Fold these 3 entries.
Entry 1:
Amino acid sequence: MQYEGHQAEFCGLNEYGGLQDEDDTAEAAALGQHATTSWKIKSLDSDILTSEEDAFPEDKMTAVKHVEAHEIVRVTHRAGGQSNQSRHRWTTNDLDELIRPRFTQVFIPLTRTSMSQLPPWHGMSIDERQDLFDRVFPNSAHRIETNDMNSRITEWQSKFAAAALTILDSHFIKTGLVELEARATWCREQLGSSVASMKAPFMWETWDNGKKKGCFQGDLVLKTFGLVHIPVIQAVPHELRDAEGSSDLRPCGALILAVLAVERALTIWLSGARVIQTGQAGHFSADNWGDKIVVSRGVAKTSSKVANLFARAQKMSCDRWIAILDAARAHYRRHKAIQDKQAIVVEESASDAPMTESDGDCE
């Protein structure tokens, strides 16, 4: 693939196309509504906190306030007469039957693709979502309003966490890491001394005693990113994508979500056993994995790990991004091929099974 001129910085990112269905059956619980805040990405050379350990001194004078917020939305009929109080929790069944398939197969992936370019857990405004909705349904009378369509977005974010755990489980099996101590040691080594400072081997394509190559190209990261986000990109029809070179299509937010999901998976296995905290503490959420403002002894300090990782992803060259997307797509294709092969095996097994008396009765 050759890229020439100024538009080469973006053109390769438009080539991950091909409309296909996306599995959206599992609905994640919608997050509670928060007030919106603006993002200020700190410089990578800033002297503010870069590690979670520094951000949480062990004293009773420390209070934590979370930086990030969500904008929760729903889709309602303009002509509808129901009040907010009388409406039940919003689902796609509230939509007209004629637009439901396109809503799930096109609008949701388009929204996720747009959000993938934002910092993790950073919400889109109602107007921004309305613009996307109008692009998909130019003749529709629906309007986006504040409330609870956000479950479809949190579901996408939760998929990163689920994929990372599944991929790590598979890695343990393939590499023969069955002993608790062996798994614990490997997880500690992969987490390194600091994810915030990029001193974690799992984040790099190669790592040899601190000599590193291939930022954000670690095997676990690329597999997680590929399995979750490549099908989202592919589900968006070409006619709905931004014109070539007109905007930055690099999914920096999705890539950093994959990094954080792998960090969470390694942390869960840090004892050698899979231990996930119960309740809200175990969720892959902004509250647990987003940036925070820490007030310690009356002094407010910012822990900006996520913002700095996002800024690092934004600074990567087009060539690096093409390499990341190509590798992620290859992982997804292999995963899909295995799924398809397993489906064929199951189907053949079912067809080869001898017909029982009850089967004959059914015929």
Entry 2:
Amino acid sequence: MGSLVALKALSLHNNSLSGDIPSSLGNCKVLGLINLSDNKFLGIIPRWIVERTTLMVIHLRSNKFTGEIPQNICQLSYLRVLDLANNSLSGTIPKCLNNISNMVVGFIEGHFNVLEANYNFESYKEILILNIKGRDSKYKDILRYVRMIDLSSNNLSRSIPVEIFSLSKLQSLNLSHNHLTGMISVEIGGMEYLESLDLSRNSLSGEVPQTIAKLTFLGDLNMSYNNLSRRIPSGTQIQTLCPLSFFGNAELCGAPLLKNCPDDDEEETPRPTGIGENREFP
């Protein structure tokens, strides 16, 4: 397969392929999409993948990859889908992800658009199944407009780099089920197009930044099972979310949770009066 030097899209998902990814695939110099999800590939993510600057989609979800996320991945300025979820990756989230231009300034056309093409007067559009908002959905006609990062269900540690919040055109970010610590930066308010955010099942601490209320497109939020504290920010849509979005944070309070904050004014509830209570009988 490495002899297919003009190959633009490689989809081998949902098979039982195992072992290392063949190094001969590094000969595919114009590869724009690689989908090896739901297999049993192992080892580290090959260096040639993150050096393929033509890549728009990296979909390596649900394999057995180990090691760290390669720093060179930040050089892929055309990248619009990065899904490395459900592997055994360790180390930290690269701070340089804000160098991925396509997720900062929006739609950028590359040398070709690998997601759509015309052959013999017939159009072809790549189909990709992505897990966004907690469910698998098929993307075809609007795939070219999707911007998402999913690093969930790995062994990533330390804090969430503030640089990731500079990805202002990102629509979906999932960092759940890792070992992330530290506070959530106030810079999260700059992710103006974010629709889905999942930071659940980590060890994040501190307050939920008030700036998260600026994310007017945010309709799917999960911060459950962390160590977050104090009052949940007030926002146009925050209080309408399901309380389960914040469940499992013992020190968190305020709507949509039923737990009041210590500085809330306690409303006086009138005492019930009934027969025989505080009455005098002749």
Entry 3:
Amino acid sequence: MAKNIITSFHTLPVELMYRILDHLTPFDIIVSIQDVCIRFNAIIHTYHPYLTFNTLELSFYRTPRVGKSRIYGSIHHNKTITTLNILNRDIDDEEIRHLVEALQTNHTITILYLHYTGIGTDGARHLADMLKRNHIIIKLNLSYNNIGNEGIRYLADALKINHTITALNLERNHITDEGARHLADALKTNHTLTSLNLNFNQITDEGACCLAETLDVNHTITDLNWQFTSTQNIGHIRLLIALQINQGATTLSLRSRHINNETLYQLANLLMNNEITTILDLQWNEIGSEGARHLANLLTINRTITALDLGYNKISDEGVCHLADVLKTNHTITTLNLRQNNIGDEGVRHLVDTLKTNRVRQNLCLYIRFIRFTLIIDYYLIGS
């Protein structure tokens, strides 16, 4: 009588184990096979599909807690995953604690997404403690959570110590001016972070000014995204200028920023001694003749700006006269766009007279469009 042969996974040939693994997903291998025994680990670490599996995406809406714990445990010593993306609205602070414990010993995950996870203050505190010791993660996405100002304070403290993270996404986290101050304080000493996303938080001009002051001394941030819910005013403009300097860009675009005459007065003061901006784009704002006067005052001192775009504003003949007068002595401006303003014949005459005396008139291109008796006239006046 033939003997029954009891076969164990421990004695199966490697080739047969590969065939079994072919029927499993990399996720199944990580959760079910990895760390079961030394032999299994040796086999899966020579199995090509497992070795090329570097992104783990998890959505835990209905996953039992024991399943989550097993997944977190599998991250501890995994050597293939470089990107971990967790999307889950009901992950709690305790689970975040288990996750960060796993990340303390993981040495391959460089990109961590934790958006839509409901992370609050306590979760942010656990993450901050991990970031103080983790020197592997370079990109952290915490968008669409409930971190708030207190949570930001923990993360800001971690940024003072962590010198690995280069990109941080904090979009929609109920951050106000207080949180902006915490971040601004951290960025005075952190010179590793290059990208910061603060879109759609409750940061006003006060918080924007704090961040702008920090960028005056921090020249590492080159990518700063913000769409604040408050009215964009001088603080936001200061941020744009500081970011432009950090980027080494020569164009300052302030299109459609609701800039009025009062804001333009502050902007002009900021640009008086600016030696970076050569192109100033102010199209589609609310600039009137008083604002044009502020710009004229700016151009009496600033000798860096070569192109000024004031299209689609509310500048009348009075404002054009201010600009025309300054162009008699300013020989740096070579391009001026006044398209779609309230300019009449008198304003055009002043500009034409200026072109006759401006020493760089051969390079001065003036674009005007105005309507008279339903007739659209395009002026392209080039000094000859």
